[in-house]
Write a structure and sequence with these properties.
single chain, 85 residues
Length: 85
Amino acid sequence: MKFRKKPLEIEAEHFTEENKNRVFNWMAGNRVAGFEGDAPIIKFMTIHGDIAVARIGDWVVKDSAPGTYYPVKPGVFAKTYEAVE
């Protein structure tokens, strides 16, 4: 059998050096800004109750439960999602 992923609109922000503060402020719920070495990161809760880490270059995607998100690597994001006009 074959299956197709249904089209689904999501909210996401690209976590970059230039907009790291905007991404942090966009996120609701429990999140913590920090550093790995000199690189900024954001730690946050996933829908499964796990702690996830977004690193510079990652996309942060809003999940279905309020205040939950998940990180997506740039290559995976580019293959999985396209912009909605």
